[in-house]
Amino acid sequence: MIHRYGWGTVTALLVALLAPATFAPAALAQDTPLTVSGQVTDAETGETLPGANVRIVGTQIGTTTDVNGRYELQLTPAASLLEVTFVGYRTREVSIPEASGTITLDIRLQEDVLGIDEVVVSGLASSVKRSNLASSVETISARELAEISTPQTLDGAISGKITGGVITSNTGAPGGGIAVKLRGITTINGESQPLFIVDGVILNNDAISNGVNAVTAAAAGGNASSQDNPANRIADLNPEDVESIEILKGPSAAAIYGARASNGVVIIQTKRGNAGGGVQFSVRQSLGFTTIANKVGTRRFTEETAVDTYGPDDPEPGATPEEIAQIEAGQQAIRDLFNQTGGAFTDYEEEFYGNEGLLSTTSLSASGGNDRTQFFVSGLIKDDEGIIENTGYEKQSVRVNLTHRFSSKFSADVTANYIRSTARRGLTGNDNSGTTFGVSLTSTPSFLDVLPNGDGTYPDHPLNASNPFQTRDLSTIEETNNRVLSSARVTYNIFQQNTQGLQAIVEGGVDYFSLDQDARFPRELQFYDDERDSGGLVGQSIQGRTNNLNANVRGALVHTLSLPEPDLFFTTQVGFTAFTQDQDVVTSAAAGLIPDQFNVDQAASLQTNQTRLTQDDRAFFVQEEINYADRLVGTLGFRAERSSLNGDVDQLYFYPKASLAVNVAEFPFWTTQTIDQLKLRLAFGQTGNTAPFGSKFTIFNPTSIGGGVGLTISGQRGFADVEPERASEIEGGFDVSGFDGRASLEFTVYRKVIDDLLLTREVEPSSGFTLETFNGGQLTNTGIEIGLSLIPVNTSTVRWVTRTSFWTNNAEVTELTVPPFRALGGGFGATFGQIQIEEGKSPTQIVGIDDRDGDGAADDGTFVLGDTDPDFQMSFLNDITLFRNLRLTIFAHWKKGGDNINLSELLTDLNGTSPDLDEPGGAARAAAFGVSAQQFVQDASYLKIREIGLYYTVPQEAIGGMLPYVRNLSVGVSANNPIIITPYKSYDPEVNNFGTQPVATGVEVTPFPTSRSFLFHLNFGL
Amino acid sequence: MTTLSLRALVVLLIAGSLVGCDLFSIDDEANPNGPALEDVLNNPSRDNILAVAAGVEASSRVDIDLYLVNVGVIGREYWRTSSADPRFTGDLLGKASSILDANTFYTTRPWNARYRTIRNANILLQLADLNASADGERLTEAEADYVRGFAKTWQAYQYLLNLNLTFENGLRFISPGEDAAGPVLSYGESLGQIAALLNEADGDLDGGDAFFGITDIAFANRALAARVAAYQGNFTEVLSILDSAFDVDGIGGAGLTEGAFHVFSTGSGDITNPFFLAPSSDVSDAILAHPSYAADITETDGRLDKVQLRTNGDGEPATATFDGLSTQFGFFVYKSNVDGIPIARNAELVLLRAEARAQTGDLAGAIADLNTIRTAVGLGDYTGEASQGAVIDEMLRQRRYELYGEGHRWVDVRRYDRLGTLPIDREGDDVWDRFPIPATENVGS
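^ inputs. structure came back:
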């Protein structure tokens, strides 16, 4: 007790300093202490709710319900209202009846189907009720994420589910790979992906190339290439472990995350154990198959069109007899090829992409605990095949999450997760060597026979450097990642009194992975024929090893103070964060292999690259939140941050924030019950984006000649004074909900301006450099986000929940101090159409040559031919439950507008295999190459049914007798991408040959086709 | 108890703030991925000088294949066929309405690579000057001179390659330590600058101590000087350079192939000859000899081995066809992926003297030089007309065959104003006389 009084003295001083006016004399002492107790239950089912929070309004006195949903509280003299909150339920305030002694008060909670009362993260160490939030924060629940269907990777599971986000998958290859852009374009050359935080650990989301560029030569000069189709490492997470995902979409919400938060913050919480009800096991099994979603078609040939396309042109008048003979021989060769198969039609798209891959996911979880210790343990085994033979994705994941309360003051939360994932993504996309599957297939006309012979041999492809079937079957392109994610959070209540509390939170974690990338191209492959003939280097082995460590720690003090009169609640937090990253990538490309050997030392030639990356960030933050009776909620705060990536590592950059939410419906004058929430909100914030590693250095690259080493100056001129980009955002909007929690509308407008853009400009190459980084320029994004959630039908037999979102963003380069330039990864030049950054224009505009005067010459200049950014997007989630047991969920996503640069079609045109080449339209398009790029710029609008799931929960009565141990049982069927409607003339309008890029999307060069999958589910609980 | 708690708190606060201070600072670390330019300039040691010099030689080979594609395809020596990139047989041959693009790889990459080597050589020149005041091991004066001559010769060569592409669109020059290059100079002015740079380098090399280097840089310097003089039409200068620097009369037979080369190897970090593709390569990625090479060659000319007849599975001749182009021959100048690419070699010296002699009226001397070339490849002595015009024709013919695949023919027919004599393979094809200056130079050529 002495201890407590000791703290009390300190507290009294603190309070006296903070709010002297409120230091009122204590209320009169009560003779008999009042106690309130009761049980909290689900209003509909009557189930008890363990773990619900019960608090006396206006104080910090509260408790949580025990395993039976029971609570008991000592009342303070002035107590008149109890507030009960529980995840997934509407918050309720209940008045305490005037009585003495023990009061019994049972409380029934309504399910919060629309998520109106959920709690979201607002600062680094505190959370806030959604209804008090001043900015729009998106939440994706476990159900929306992983329980409609079985997503292969976490990144695939969020596509289309973020209002205000443009999420584009780069490829259909197994193992993921997406680009996330929240509220428009936020950078031109900097890091473009949001900050991912899993249970407090800053996750590595790098896309690491596997070096197959050494074979494909997609990007000449060097092994590292963004055209190697790398997947982002966020894909490693097990979606089924995720409890919820919160998305802070812009600086107004994310300012407290500072210099890495310009692209938004994605906060992922994994599941925790339940306090009551013993250990619950849950087993989920899904089985299914995958198949190509959409085929492009292929051309049918006649002998004449075959010779026309692949043979030499007819001799010109005046040709010599030798020339005529030569041409005739050339034409005869094609005629022979055609007649070899009798002109038979082989659908190579079907042969190659037609694999029906098996999909299997087994997951098991156990959760349980008591009121002191809770645990959640999960395991996952996934084995998915792809639509191309020998491709696929496998994952094994184990997780243990433990929460323990040592005392009423001290609790700890520990998570540990081990993941092993293996992806075989094939060899697709751009190349300059005729080796990738896609490019090879474009030069495989349907009359050829290049199918495997069945005895392990493959016919030589007469019209291409490689036989894609041979490459597919004999090569190995695989990457395996071993990853450990672990976090700990310790909370200590330094003191807790009726009106105030002080809490210390220390949180930290590590994310370590070791990625092995293994690409083997054996000597037998056709594309080594030339080397074989000439004694060149036959066979290649490219081995990549990446070790990455992310570690971060955060310490914060949170002080809360309630003042009953007026009803004010202060939350003050101050804290410190540190982040460090250490990455080491070693890629060895060996060529000239000893037969059947693939170790890099078993080769005649070896090229090795090592790239290391280190980053250190330090920051402190202060935030003050003032809540007046839930009517006015204001927040002020800032973060100050320094980073080793900045030119001046000691410079602190400040990122302020300020916001205000006005809950109109909480004011006394608001009497209507129909609308129980009307909130007006306004928020402002700033965030940064640090320069890519190494921007401040001009370095030499190592080289070797004649056995000696040398130094060659890098083509990129460094910028010693590089600073972070700064994004400022102001957003405003309103939230309305009512009709008994059956309708809710969220409306937001925002304006986000990014200054000091990190630009990499092409410099005049006569300087000896080709690129340099600098800070300059400005981008502006404005946009609207609307979310409407409804429960149109809610009876005991039918419940229909629907959520419709609409969002649109308009981006403009408002200032650019350099001439227009091609965005990083924004295409291959004006002849093909390129994404061009230009002042006063959209940063995603597509510019290219066009024959405007119709004279057939490419001399009219370049024009804006399109824009990759959509006009707007909408998503539709419908969830219908019949008789409580049958549940149908449909998730549809509509993207209106936005163009792609379709160069797959160019390749099929050039290689004579486009299905429509014998029609006037196709022929005209093929002929336009070189004079216009307009034909490549194609509308990439789509309407996708992304996920559809139908589940039947076997009634308890039915299973009770047969399977006594089964707590619940459900069976279901689901599909991913069952329907894609698009005018776009390729596999999928969601594509990017260059992977995840800051600005560019939608440049297509023969990607891995998108698949659709159909699954059967069996889920049961024990 | 109270005091104990307070004391604990004070201790914790002090400890926390100390640790906090330490935690809050960040080290300004060097880039782990390569030495920084300023670090090298701050340490102009002998080792750094040797490394940057090797970097000059190594980087001069980057995209040399694209240069050879550009000049050889337009000069109708060979075609570069690629199913992945249609521009080799489109833009470069002027197919239909295609033109050369100022902002695409064939224009920008060779140009950029040459200027990068020039920048490296400029850093080398800076280092050579800084070394005199370095703390560590210093170069002797003669060594420093050699470094300067080496750097300037490489620069002159790099400038010349770019000027060969842009021709009358001109060139920009950049001095050591400068951020940006100067204005575009005309073709004539540029040739003059290059000649002056070579002569300056010659002076440095003369007194210099050749203590490193793989390429015979002194040979390259004078050979290039003679070539530049020929390009300038200054044939007395050609003769004077050849006389003073070389024993041209002593060249013959196998000696013709000797000279200064870009070298390649399969060693770690090194590169292989990027212009080597097997002559039998599939047309989807091949260098095909232009049919006129074999069609126009004299039957007994041993240089027919610079192309190779392509055959089908049965060993019969097979016509390769791509994009409306047909030939039976693959390009076979470079026999393996470690064959060197000539910067200049003895045969060119002989041909340059033949040219200079013919131009200055010494027709007999010219014919003698041409016969040196002819006999080496199994042709008899020249028996044609001995007029100046005929000898020049023969000289150009011998240059065409002798220097096939080494980047000369287009430049030669251009300076003799004979671009019109190059064969047109498809209706509507064009023969370009120059490349645009890359758009990234912002000079609006």
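Residues 1-31, 221-225 of chain A have pLDDT under 50 and may be disordered. Chain A touches chain B through 101 residues (CB under 8 Å).
thumbs up if we can close this ticket
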